[in-house]
């Protein structure tokens, strides 16, 4: 079949075409692959060169990109640049038609030409930043589409990257795995696939011999099986769609973050202020011009005044330019783009741009235990056969050979973990070494159990190969156990493993160390539970291994787990150690200092969970902090949750539904919630949370699809890094905002006063373009590239509704603006009396250019020395912290200062100012630099004015207000009704099926953020795909 025919067959799910080609065996024959063996080592030895040459690689096409030139042209749709270009064109025409014929001086064209140059520079900088951002997104999308998959090659399971999957490969699939290419079902059990990403179907679709089609880009919901790859890369259904619609699924390149929306609002207000200031200035100057026209004597004199009107218009436009903070969007773009790339180094792979800033406002983190707080290096360290003393150490012994064989079969067969060997090429100098690494892949608990077999001389692969598996009841977060039914000779036997608190009640007998099968009496049961508690108090995960003989024939009723999982016989109980990560205690302590509440949500036994929570500092019972089991939490209504949840720190034996309910309640109560998850069942909670954090190593692909940030090393410390980066982005944008607004307000007011006093702006258009466009672009780069510091964790969280312009920012902006205005007005009105500069006011043109020079130079150096002040957006950051480690900041600071020297000394004509090198030049430089350094002094004084930090007060008031609203609404409802509705951010009750009110800007996720809840009655734990949607 051609690629088009295969695509058509998959698109239509055409069984007739499938059957006509001989079903899956016919496709396997065409691809020259054995369905039992997979691709062979003979092909591997050649690097699969022939197969790659014929069918290509499993690489999806890149998303559509804009060329640099197209982006450059796109910049000129910006309103600010359009206004500048129009004013430049108008000025060029009028200067050429009126002024130049009269004065015959080419310098009249400097201003319009300089506007063109400034616009080109700004457009170039913006284009380069956007182009770099585009390249970063391309790199990220390549990472996003590359993940680990398991294939059958040469008869053995092997782990490879999804981009290494080839035509004819056999995928080994289990619950949570992503499907990396279009493939056909070979064999399996209870296989269901979540096709929502490709077809929009909300229900998981069963896959079997009569429905064999599986699409690339989807994920396995339940079951396990093998599938034959028949289409890869651009020839898959998803690849074909990308080629047609020319966009990546789900990722919007022009996605606007909530912070950008806030800044757009600020920029809009300032634009209106600038427009009003410009119009007012023009009206005043127009009145002056009309008076001069009335006073003018004769036609020639009136004609000579026409260029003055053009000049007045340019002054008004100049004041408008002063007000518009056109550098803000650039600052946000740089800050978010820079943080996304740097966060990769801190093991944070950001899938959605807005997650960077949202994480900074987090007030609560709901974290998994295994692999996040612990090392996920599971080792069996305790072994308990009932009736005997518990053995300690990693090499326990089982004296009875029959029990040993039975235990090894229970561990090897009733498991999905496996051992794989990966090859890594490492270059040391000129020597290239090939390193083979063997490791177990799968559930960490199952891997720990399999490691017991090797010292006993047992080969799990051979045991599995010899096993005749009849049916598997998979492990799930709800069941907390797994059972595999096999046929051993004439006996049908079930092997079960799981948590003792879930499994012990299903067991009626136990095997003693000598090999006797004895009944579990109440006394024995209590002894077992005491031993389990001892294990749990030592922070060990406990696992019970049991079996049951079912008879001589497999019955259909055994496909119902309840018919099998009772009257079992206990073989042993093991204690599995997962050491706490070394850095977790400090990371949790940092979160406490930062005012972020960490809650552990785990499926472990409550005693184990509490022991680990105490060890890492999450649970401190002396402060009234509590732990609860998921089953007990599920019984609470929302009014009871208002009492219990604030002190809750540990939820043990929790199900995905419990986690979703906790996350939704916290959001409804006014918290900004980050939640971690690794399983497919965690997807609803990850999608619902303000920031979903999936685990990169042990997380399923379905969980990663639902998340905003992937924690690449599964480490809680990396979550704290994401928190720091979020706060850092927010601070960096605030820092640039105070720098930009100080420039804008000072320039606008001085230009207005100067225009009224001198009938012309003392700061010319080209000077303000240098300050407002070029300097601001460089300032954005300097201030938006500051990395995070530990001091960011010393402040309290700002939550969801924090104001962008905080009291500290307003204090700094007002203080610096007043200082700069006083300095500039002192120079403007006291140039001779105070500073004895010797300016001659009678020579109007020379006076204006002399005044422009000193004002311009002083103004610029006040901004230059205000840059270090602007780095500090809070009261808790030391001034020198990171000052000299940010190379961008240091270089830009020096470059701006040096370029200003060049402009003043040698570009007087171009910038419309005089700087007499003979007459009091030293005094003028001293004035400019002294007042410039004065900005640093003013910054110190302003920081000494300590303001009361009301961040926590506002957040607590918000929480209290939400609690009052929830009590008023939910008191009259029963529990079922309460969970069929939730409270929106605006305080409106949203019932199940109603549309969420739009409480803020942003995409659907951000609206969910502000909506702060989900109606839980619609979520069925057995229907995870629907919940994810």
TrEMBL record:
<dbReference type="InterPro" id="IPR001757">
    <property type="entry name" value="P_typ_ATPase"/>
</dbReference>
<keyword id="KW-0472">Membrane</keyword>
<dbReference type="InterPro" id="IPR044492">
    <property type="entry name" value="P_typ_ATPase_HD_dom"/>
</dbReference>
<keyword id="KW-0479">Metal-binding</keyword>
<dbReference type="GO" id="GO:0012505">
    <property type="term" value="C:endomembrane system"/>
</dbReference>
<dbReference type="InterPro" id="IPR018303">
    <property type="entry name" value="ATPase_P-typ_P_site"/>
</dbReference>
<comment type="similarity">
    <text>Belongs to the cation transport ATPase (P-type) (TC 3.A.3) family.</text>
</comment>
<dbReference type="InterPro" id="IPR059000">
    <property type="entry name" value="ATPase_P-type_domA"/>
</dbReference>
<dbReference type="GO" id="GO:0046872">
    <property type="term" value="F:metal ion binding"/>
</dbReference>
<keyword id="KW-0406">Ion transport</keyword>
<dbReference type="InterPro" id="IPR023299">
    <property type="entry name" value="ATPase_P-typ_cyto_dom_N"/>
</dbReference>
<comment type="function">
    <text>Catalyzes the hydrolysis of ATP coupled with the transport of calcium.</text>
</comment>
<dbReference type="InterPro" id="IPR008250">
    <property type="entry name" value="ATPase_P-typ_transduc_dom_A_sf"/>
</dbReference>
<keyword id="KW-1278">Translocase</keyword>
<feature type="transmembrane region" description="Helical">
    <location>
        <begin position="106"/>
        <end position="125"/>
    </location>
</feature>
<dbReference type="GO" id="GO:0005886">
    <property type="term" value="C:plasma membrane"/>
</dbReference>
<dbReference type="GO" id="GO:0005388">
    <property type="term" value="F:P-type calcium transporter activity"/>
</dbReference>
<dbReference type="Pfam" id="PF00122">
    <property type="entry name" value="E1-E2_ATPase"/>
</dbReference>
<keyword id="KW-0067">ATP-binding</keyword>
<feature type="region of interest" description="Disordered">
    <location>
        <begin position="987"/>
        <end position="1029"/>
    </location>
</feature>
<feature type="transmembrane region" description="Helical">
    <location>
        <begin position="309"/>
        <end position="338"/>
    </location>
</feature>
<feature type="transmembrane region" description="Helical">
    <location>
        <begin position="266"/>
        <end position="289"/>
    </location>
</feature>
<feature type="compositionally biased region" description="Polar residues">
    <location>
        <begin position="1009"/>
        <end position="1018"/>
    </location>
</feature>
<dbReference type="InterPro" id="IPR004014">
    <property type="entry name" value="ATPase_P-typ_cation-transptr_N"/>
</dbReference>
<keyword id="KW-0106">Calcium</keyword>
<feature type="transmembrane region" description="Helical">
    <location>
        <begin position="736"/>
        <end position="757"/>
    </location>
</feature>
<feature type="domain" description="Cation-transporting P-type ATPase N-terminal">
    <location>
        <begin position="20"/>
        <end position="96"/>
    </location>
</feature>
<feature type="transmembrane region" description="Helical">
    <location>
        <begin position="923"/>
        <end position="945"/>
    </location>
</feature>
<dbReference type="Pfam" id="PF13246">
    <property type="entry name" value="Cation_ATPase"/>
</dbReference>
<dbReference type="Pfam" id="PF00690">
    <property type="entry name" value="Cation_ATPase_N"/>
</dbReference>
<keyword id="KW-0109">Calcium transport</keyword>
<dbReference type="InterPro" id="IPR006068">
    <property type="entry name" value="ATPase_P-typ_cation-transptr_C"/>
</dbReference>
<dbReference type="InterPro" id="IPR036412">
    <property type="entry name" value="HAD-like_sf"/>
</dbReference>
<keyword id="KW-0813">Transport</keyword>
<keyword id="KW-0460">Magnesium</keyword>
<feature type="transmembrane region" description="Helical">
    <location>
        <begin position="808"/>
        <end position="831"/>
    </location>
</feature>
<keyword id="KW-0812">Transmembrane</keyword>
<dbReference type="Pfam" id="PF00689">
    <property type="entry name" value="Cation_ATPase_C"/>
</dbReference>
<feature type="transmembrane region" description="Helical">
    <location>
        <begin position="769"/>
        <end position="787"/>
    </location>
</feature>
<feature type="transmembrane region" description="Helical">
    <location>
        <begin position="71"/>
        <end position="94"/>
    </location>
</feature>
<keyword id="KW-0547">Nucleotide-binding</keyword>
<dbReference type="GO" id="GO:0016887">
    <property type="term" value="F:ATP hydrolysis activity"/>
</dbReference>
């Amino acid at each position: 079949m051609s690629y088009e025919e295969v695509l058509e067959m998959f698109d239509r799910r055409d069984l007739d075409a499938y059957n006509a080609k001989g079903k899956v065996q016919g496709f396997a024959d065409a691809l020259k692959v054995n369905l039992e063996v997979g691709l062979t080592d003979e092909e591997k030895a050649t690097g699969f060169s022939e197969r790659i040459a014929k069918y290509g690689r499993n690489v999806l096409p890149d998303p559509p990109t804009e060329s640099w030139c197209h982006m450059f042209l796109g910049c000129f749709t910006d309103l600010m640049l359009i206004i500048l270009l129009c004013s430049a064109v108008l000025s060029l025409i009028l200067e050429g038609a009126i002024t130049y014929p009269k004065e015959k001086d080419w310098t009249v064209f400097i201003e319009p030409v300089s506007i063109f140059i400034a616009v080109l520079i700004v457009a170039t900088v913006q284009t380069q930043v956007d182009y770099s951002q585009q390249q970063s997104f391309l790199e990220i999308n390549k990472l996003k589409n590359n993940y680990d998959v398991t294939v059958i090659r040469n008869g053995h399971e092997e782990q490879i990257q999804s981009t290494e999957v080839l035509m004819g490969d056999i995928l080994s699939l289990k619950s949570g795995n992503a499907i990396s290419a279009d493939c056909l079902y070979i064999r399996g059990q209870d296989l269901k696939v979540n096709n929502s990403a490709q077809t929009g179907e909300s229900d998981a679709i069963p896959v079997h011999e009569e429905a064999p089609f599986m699409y690339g880009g989807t994920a396995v919901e339940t079951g396990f099986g093998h599938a034959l790859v028949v289409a890869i890369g651009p020839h898959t259904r998803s690849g074909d769609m990308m080629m047609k619609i020319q966009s990546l699924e789900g990722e919007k390149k022009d996605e606007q973050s909530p912070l950008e929306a806030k800044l757009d609002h600020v920029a809009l207000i300032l634009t209106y202020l600038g427009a009003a200031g410009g119009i007012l200035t023009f009206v005043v100057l127009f009145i002056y011009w009309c008076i001069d026209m009335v006073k003018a004597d004769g036609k020639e004199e009136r004609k000579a005044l026409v260029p003055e009107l053009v000049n007045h218009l340019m002054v008004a436009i100049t004041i408008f330019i002063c007000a518009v903070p056109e550098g803000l969007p650039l600052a946000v773009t740089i800050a978010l783009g820079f943080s996304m790339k740097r966060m990769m180094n801190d093991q944070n792979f950001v899938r959605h741009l807005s997650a960077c800033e949202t994480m900074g406002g987090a007030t609560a983190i709901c974290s998994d235990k295994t692999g996040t707080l612990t090392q996920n290096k599971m080792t069996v360290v305790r072994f308990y056969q009932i009736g005997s003393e518990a053995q300690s150490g990693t090499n326990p012994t089982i004296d009875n050979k029959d029990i040993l064989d039975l235990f090894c079969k229970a561990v090897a067969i009733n498991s999905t973990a496996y051992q794989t060997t990966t090859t890594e090429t490492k270059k040391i100098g000129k020597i290239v070494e090939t390193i083979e690494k063997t490791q177990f892949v799968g559930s960490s608990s199952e891997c720990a159990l399999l490691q017991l077999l090797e010292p006993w001389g047992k080969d799990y692969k051979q045991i599995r190969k010899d096993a005749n598996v009849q049916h598997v009841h998979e492990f799930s977060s709800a069941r907390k156990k797994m059972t595999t039914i096999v046929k051993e000779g004439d006996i049908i036997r079930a092997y079960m493993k799981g948590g003792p608190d879930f499994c012990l009640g299903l067991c009626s007998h136990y095997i003693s160390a000598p090999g006797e099968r004895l009944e579990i009496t109440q006394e024995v049961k209590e002894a077992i539970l005491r031993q389990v508690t001892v294990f749990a108090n030592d922070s060990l995960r406990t696992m019970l291994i049991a079996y049951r003989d079912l008879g001589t024939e497999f019955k259909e009723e055994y496909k119902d787990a309840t018919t099998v999982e009772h009257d079992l016989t206990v073989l042993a109980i093991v204690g599995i150690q997962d050491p706490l990560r070394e850095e977790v205690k400090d990371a949790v302590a940092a979160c406490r200092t930062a005012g972020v509440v960490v809650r552990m949500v785990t499926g472990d036994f409550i005693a184990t969970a509490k022991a680990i929570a105490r060890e890492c500092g999450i649970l401190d019972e002396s402060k009234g902090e509590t732990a609860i089991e998921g089953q007990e939490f599920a019984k609470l209504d929302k009014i009871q949750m208002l009492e219990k949840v604030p002190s809750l720190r540990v939820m043990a034996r929790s199900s995905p539904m419990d986690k979703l309910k906790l996350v939704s309640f916290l959001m409804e109560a006014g918290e900004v919630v980050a939640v971690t998850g690794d399983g497919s069942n965690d997807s609803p909670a990850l999608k619902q949370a303000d920031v979903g954090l999936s685990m990169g190593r042990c997380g399923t692909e379905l969980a990663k699809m639902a998340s905003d940030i992937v924690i690449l090393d599964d480490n809680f410390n990396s979550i704290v890094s994401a928190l720091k980066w979020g706060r850092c982005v927010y601070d960096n944008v605030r820092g640039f905002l105070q720098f930009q607004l100080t420039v804008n307000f000072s320039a606008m007011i001085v230009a207005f006063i100067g225009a009224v006093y001198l009938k012309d702006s003392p700061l010319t258009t080209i000077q303000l373009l240098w300050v407002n466009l070029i300097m601001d672009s460089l300032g954005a780069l300097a201030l938006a590239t500051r990395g995070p510091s530990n001091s960011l964790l010393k402040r309290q969280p700002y939550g969801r509704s924090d104001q962008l312009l905080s009291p500290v920012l307003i204090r700094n902006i007002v203080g610096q603006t007043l200082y700069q205005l006083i300095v500039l007005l002192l120079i403007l009105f006291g140039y001779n009396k105070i500073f004895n500069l010797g300016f001659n006011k009678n020579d109007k043109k020379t006076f204006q250019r002399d005044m422009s020079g000193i004002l311009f130079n002083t103004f610029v150096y006040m901004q230059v020395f205000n840059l270090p002040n602007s780095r500090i957006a809070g009261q808790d950051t030391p001034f020198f912290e990171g000052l000299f480690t940010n190379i961008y900041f240091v270089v830009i600071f020096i470059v701006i200062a040096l370029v200003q020297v060049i402009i003043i000394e040698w570009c007087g004509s171009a910038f419309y100012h005089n700087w007499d090198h003979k007459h009091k030049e030293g005094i003028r430089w001293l004035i400019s630099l002294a007042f410039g350094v004065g900005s640093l002094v003013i910054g110190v004084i302003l920081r000494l004015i300590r303001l009361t930090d009301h961040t926590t007060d506002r957040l607590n008031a918000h929480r209290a207000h939400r609690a009052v609203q929830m009590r008023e609404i939910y008191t009259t409802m029963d529990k079922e009704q309460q969970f069929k509705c939730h409270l929106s951010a605006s305080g409106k009750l949203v019932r199940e099926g109603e549309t969420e009110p739009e409480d803020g800007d942003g995409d659907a996720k951000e609206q969910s953020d502000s909506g702060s809840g989900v109606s839980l009655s619609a979520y069925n734990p057995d229907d995870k795909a629907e919940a994810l949607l």
